[in-house]
Amino acid sequence: MTTPTLTPLFLHPTAKPANPYILLILNQPITSPRLFHHLWQKASLTISADGASNHLHNLSLRTGTDYTPDVIIGDLDSLSPSARTYFEERGVNIVRVPDQDSTDFGKALEWGFANLPPGLEKVDWVAFNSLGGRMDASFHSLHQLFLFADGAFPGTEEAKSRRGELWLVSPPNLAFLLPAGKSVVLLGGGEGTEEERRARKEVVFGRGVCGVLPVAGERVVRTRGLRWDVDWMVGVGVTRGLGLSTSNE
Which residues belong to any copy of the Thiamin pyrophosphokinase catalytic domain (predicted)? Predict the structure, then answer.
């Protein structure tokens, strides 16, 4: 069985991402425009979820860079008239999905899997501004990690077979799901010398403060390579307040 290797090189300003990715922008202010700019430049497809388009509009006007997404999708209750006009004039596909039983995050995933860029065998998703803000929205984003991993969303089996990783990015935070079994996380990628890999890691992560959070319930957790490795026979996550590793490196 192949050991999953997770490599968030898409965050590095110059390194090539491990997989092509779709950039999904969610509705919060864009507080790290430099990081956002290079994520935008490398994306194979850009999707703006409803009110996130207001922030793209504002950033475009403020910086003089045209952040016109490939599609705007949602129930459109948050899209401002000025942003709508701005993007309509640029020919953006604006898709209204009034269903109130799904979120704009879920609507964007469904649309994206129905419109995957051709010729890409494996595609990651980068959900920008998916953490922070309202706590219920952050928990929903974490829930999406599990739905994404299980393929529990509308879409063809062919489209689901092309999904890579879902990465939740909200500077300074990055969250992703470790599947059951052994996983390898290479923050600096797997190519080059150890010194080159360390340099790439430090450009993005600095000292690399991290946590290991078994939020799905009881889990056996063992790590190697952290400053304070853990070896829990049972990590019970947030359910009983035990088995959490925070402020690790």
Answer: 36-147
CB contact at 8 A, 236 and 242: yes
Quote the CA–CA distance of 51 and 61 in Å, as a whole number: 16
The closest of 7, 69, 58 to 33, measured between CA atoms, is: 58
Q: Where are the domains of the chain?
A: 16-180
Encoded amino acid at 101, one letter: D
Instruction: Give the distance between the most distant pair of CA atoms in the chain.
Output: 58
Mean pLDDT of successive 10-residue stretches along the chain, which has 249 residues: 78 85 95 93 95 96 96 93 96 90 87 88 93 85 90 82 92 88 81 79 76 78 85 63 75
The alpha helices in the chain, defined as continuous H runs, are 33-42, 52-63, 81-88, 104-114, 135-150, 157-160, 194-205
Q: Helix (H, G, I), strand (E, B), or coil: what is residue 78?
A: coil
Q: Which pTM was predicted?
A: 0.90
Beta bridge partners of 127: 24, 168
16-180 folds as: Rossmann fold (3.40.50)
